[in-house]
Amino acid sequence: MSVSPDIQTLCQNKNHVAPTIDSEREEFRKYLESSGLLDVLTRIMEDLYEKDSRPTDPLSFLSNALGAVNFNGREITALQDELQTLREIIKNLEEENSFLREKLQKISSD
Question: Which residue stretches, if any, does this entry annotate as coiled coil (predicted)?
Answer without folding.
Answer: 76-110
